[in-house]
């Protein structure tokens, strides 16, 4: 069992180990800025300044930089007395660049970001930048791991925050009632030279706005999934920040959330910027599928179970109103004659839910349509007819859902989809949700990428790989090598979040390639370390290792389940065999918190140099307090 000790890596090593890559020789890289240039536009990411985008302009040969910087900027609680968010995460101050890569097509960066006081924000930023024709495509990811696990209310998020200089100071947009018909643009002139949050806002019904110079040349921001924009014009005098632009929406940022979004910067004239928006016109009709995130929906006073989202939003009933609000939008009522809601109700007495819609120029007022009856046994798709309702006409700017009345304590609603067309049915996901009960976290590894809000990969040595495609697979090629510092190899995932106090966790496993005497251990354990698992070293066995206690029992099953339970100062390991949980070992445990790992490991002296491949599936926290 001594091989598991090699898995006790530090948090720093998990964050940065093996990820930093130097730019290739043919990449343009000077003065701390990594560039991409396609002969039409040029973009630069400043690795000495928090990996912000600090250069946007024409191709090489043009020295005109149109921006001061472009960066992600997130907000959350705790909130001050005047309602201002006390947590700001952005690429400045104490931001540290952990990894960077420029392969001539994409600039990738990972940073340990800062907060408003230039302190570490307990979060990571990742950014992918590519160029095509006049467009700069940017994808951002926030991975939060805040010690403060309080569920704070939603706050406006800048997606992104774009600051320009005096060269680009005039703000233009289209916010009329005939989008994509070539109507006249509007110049935003409110509050010239003044900065406040979120600033003058409007509904950009063509999903774009631009900051340009006096000749109409500059940068467009295109955000196909949002219409709420804010911008502040400046003047051509001075060298400070003279223009500002952002797309924004209210969003709840959980302490352990993974939050992804994308946007496009377009370099050119107003005509060229608008042409790009027309060429990439989105379908503006509502189509929200809550498989992996909240799709920009938020709660004015209620809440859901929290992050991560797995197949549905689990909305919680209670003393506050659990209503959901969707992002501001813009579609013609006649194009959406009905809205479909796929959900599952768990409520003692709720019988009616209410779908709401908002109309242009009606302010905060909303019309509504009841849909009945609610069925409480399983997921159903509810079709809500809207055509013909006298209040449903003209331009619609968003939806809301009141799934439960105030005071329905203990009630839950799993909302999987709200769409203008019949919702897709994902039977496996819905079955997992229906059996999850009060599980704090469930990962069926169904997607094609690891849930980075909960897991982080860990590797030691050369060769082993970790992939996800319906299950979490770890492949150990025969030619794999050990880490010379540890004389061991390991690969797998470890949780970013910790279980505090007593807990009950389990996972399924399969031995896909498992030759005799292969010397590789399959481990399901904690970061202390304590573990249960399988090994084949002089015999096929299942083990439990709670130092200094250890047990090895013969077992040749090629699949099964493993379980760890901590209760009242003792930890117990189980294996599922012939349909029953078999107790392997009890031992005293004084630990008050635990991270979880799914991995393989082997010592140099044990590895049999034959291919080994294992898989984990259906990781489940049955009970425990999860802190991220």
Work out the helix count. Answer: 3
Mean pLDDT: 86
Q: Oligomeric status of the shown chains?
A: single chain
Radius of gyration: 27 Å
Estimated structural class: mainly beta
Helix content: under 10%
Describe the structure.
With 628 residues, the chain is mainly beta. It folds into three domains: 31-279, Beta-galactosidase, Chain A, domain 5 (Distorted Sandwich); 287-436, Jelly Rolls, CATH 2.60.120; 447-627, Jelly Rolls, CATH 2.60.120.200. Helix content is 4%, strand content 50%. It has three helices and 46 strands. Strands 7-8-9-10-19-16-15-12-13 form a nine-stranded antiparallel β-sheet, with helices on one face. Strands 31, 33, 34, 36, 41, 42, 43, 44 and 46 form a nine-stranded antiparallel β-sheet that branches. Strands 32-35-45-37-38-39-40 form a seven-stranded antiparallel β-sheet, with no helix packed on it. Strand 21 (303-304) and strand 22 form a beta hairpin. 45% of the residues are buried.
